Amino acid sequence: MRAVLHKDRVKVRIVRSDRKGRPEGRVVEILERSKQPIIGRLLQESGVWLVAPEDKRYGHDVLIPKGATSVAKAGQVVVVELVEPPALFGQPVGRIKEVLGEVDDPGMEIEIAVRKFSVPHEFSEACIALARTLPDKVRPHDKVNRIDLTDVPLVTIDGEDARDFDDAVYCEPATKGRGKSGVNGWRLLVAIADVSHYVETGSAIDIDAYDRATSVYFPRRVIPMLPEKLSNGLCSLNPEVDRLCMVCDMFVTADGEVDAYQFYPAVMWSHARFTYTEVAAILGNTRGPEAIKRKDRLGDLLNLHGVFQALLKSRQKRGAVDFETTETQIVCDESGRIEKIVPRTRNVAHRVIEEAMLAANVCSADFISQSKHPGLFRVHEGPTPEKKEILQNYLKATGLGMTISDDPSPGEFQAIAVATKDRPDAQQIHSMLLRSMQQAIYTPTNSGHFGLAYGAYTHFTSPIRRYPDLLVHRVIKAVLAKTRYQLPVLPTPGEAHAKLARRLEKGAASRGAQPTPVPRKANAEGIAWLAAGLHCSANERRADEASRDVEAWLKCKYMKEHLGEEYGGVVTAATSFGVFVTLDAMYVEGLVHITELGGEYFRFDETRQELRGERTGTRYAIGTRVRIQVSRVDLDGRKIDFRLMQDGDALVSRAMVDKSLGRDSKARLPKGDRSDAPTHTRSATFSEKPRKRSTGKSSKAAKSIDKGLAAQKKAPRKRR
Q1: H-type helices in 120-217, by residue range?
Q2: What is the helix (H) or strand (E) element at residue 708, kind and residue range?
């Protein structure tokens, strides 16, 4: 390993197996050297300049010749470009390409992360120049061949700190059909920013957007997919200005089934900008001060809550997986230092918007499927055979009396979650259910969405921050125009295309994404869509990794100020080398190494996912409450070590562990994207019942919509 670095591509020969049967190998050829620059701190030792990589996966320090230090000073964080790779008997040699600053500078953790994970953070000159030529507002000729929805009271509902608004909603009671045979339900409009109108296929902005594939969110900073003029201005559905949009117009029955839908381009005028907190307060008390302040929109919000309750019925009928979880938010001061870590409260307003977005996404997938046009689906497959077997063994060991079948459905997972929600070990069971599932990916091959229990699902609702959504918009427009959308021809194929080429040769899965089958007779167009899905999936993982890295750095920096202090916490994972504990008050996770658990031998039980002491029978499993002391913080390695306090609350007997399981504990899950978020939602209660539904006359808004639709002769499209 002395002649290679992290991310080099090599050819390996398996030479033997270790005592556990794991294969061991030898590098026989270096196929390709990584061109990624290395980030680290510049040090001077005995007159020799070197850079210690910040990423510990690089096993070498990089030597810097005296004339290659640029203006960097000892201790500063720098970016190094390799001049000579490592050899069997020589260290790598490099030159300083960029000086980032001092390690304690505000925002340094973000500067490191974007380079460490190769996140594109600067727009090309061509992209910036093209963005300058775009108008500041919607022009008259932009409105041609669009439905005028400016008098329909569409509103946006987002977080307090949101700057780009890519979705707006409106709902009203409606009846489908006439007379006694008419079906009562809701007319739901989901209007999404029409980014595709301004970002043309293959343009400089499009190339940069494809390269990024997604916006990356850090505490106090966002690296957007699109230039700010588009993301926060021209495309954002800001209040009281004309904006272009793509609309999914749906009829939802009282049972939550989308009975009919249609897509059309439109121009809208947002009548209000709401926050989740504000809407939750209004729905919780329709006579409160927030409701009085927004009395003109109160009826519309109650209608949205009504269609939400209907869609919730459909979710429960489908058996979609829905765990109760807690997410956290890092609150920083102006200098970037953590002030506190607080739970991110999910209220009824979040769920109202999420269900509306889910409905629009399902209609998009159905529309593309029926048109036979290639596109990207959001696919979430069930558990792999290996994970399924682990889960089945675990459920059997718990004596629950419930398990999953060999071909499980989402309803089986949800049934177990509901049946165990009041058990003391509910957190451990739900965590195991979650871990058995695969990650969602983008692919042109539709395999359904297991977690949401949809036969077809895609992403339509966030084209400002996700490139797959932009592609879906373009496909829908092409189908409406009875043409065919062609993916852009990129000047540089990129890593995803290279991975796909290797997959075609070897049939192997790429890092960070589950295997995507490549049809034997795949044509150039099919391969291009496969590459696009792989690229978007990989960059989604990259964005998540960069965000987690920054959060881990901030938490380590925060906990350095609390060394030696004692806290209560709960075990959130058990491994063969120790247990991970999440602190109650701070929501920070650290490792209690197995050597810190006491003076006996602990054996890891993979079936039960716990550590068990052989002499005393002491068990540490998910949900076990402990008291710890912060013993060590490794800022470079992003690691926090805890020491178990030897008191009555730390060493617990088997009976006491069983009794304490689940007390005030909730599992923390990875942050999901907005459309998939219902798998990470919390339950909510309401103090106000929904208003009685109207079953007769159409509103002024509905007449306005119908008039525009009749002019273009667009009838609702039937779902399969």
Answers
A1: 125-132, 204-212
A2: helix 700-712
Q: What are phi and psi of 250, to 5 degrees?
A: -120, 150
| Contacts of residue 489, Cβ cutoff 8 Å, sequence gap at least 6 | 202
533 band by pLDDT with thresholds 50, 70 and 90: very high
Q: Tokens 């002391």 — which residue?
A: 629
Among 204, 230, 200, 202, smallest CA distance to 215 is for: 230
Helices (H), 451-493: 467-480
Beta strands in 271-383 (DSSP E): 272-275, 327-332, 338-344, 377-379
Are the CB atoms for 43 and 50 separated by under 8 Å?
Answer: yes
User: Rounded CA gap, 294 and 279, in Å?
Assistant: 10
pLDDT digits (tens, 9 = 90+) for 180-231: 667 789 999 999 999 999 999 999 999 999 999 999 999 888 999 999 999 9
In whole angstroms, how far apart are CA 235 and each of 101, 169, 197, 437?
35, 16, 9, 35
Which sign does the torsion angle of CA 191, 192, 193, 194 carry?
A: negative
Q: Residue 507's pLDDT is what?
A: 43
409-451 confidence digits (pLDDT tens): 888 888 888 888 877 777 778 878 888 888 899 999 999 999 9
The amino acid that residue 12 corresponds to is V
Is the CB of residue 196 less than 8 Å from the CB of residue 453? no
Structural domains of the chain sorted by starting position, each given as residue range(s) with its CATH number in brackets: 9-103 (2.40.50.700), 135-368+681-712 (no CATH), 377-538 (no CATH), 563-660 (2.40.50.140)
Tens of pLDDT, residues 122-159: 999 999 999 999 999 999 999 999 999 999 999 999 98
Q: What is the DSSP letter of 118?
A: T
CA dihedral of residues 357, 361, 367, 373 (deg, nearest 10): 140
Q: Please, which pLDDT band fits residue 695 given cuts at 50, 70 and 90?
A: very low
The residue among 345, 221, 328 whose CA lies nearest residue 555 is 328
Whole-number Cα distances in Å, 300 to 153, 188, 297, 703, 705: 8, 11, 5, 16, 16
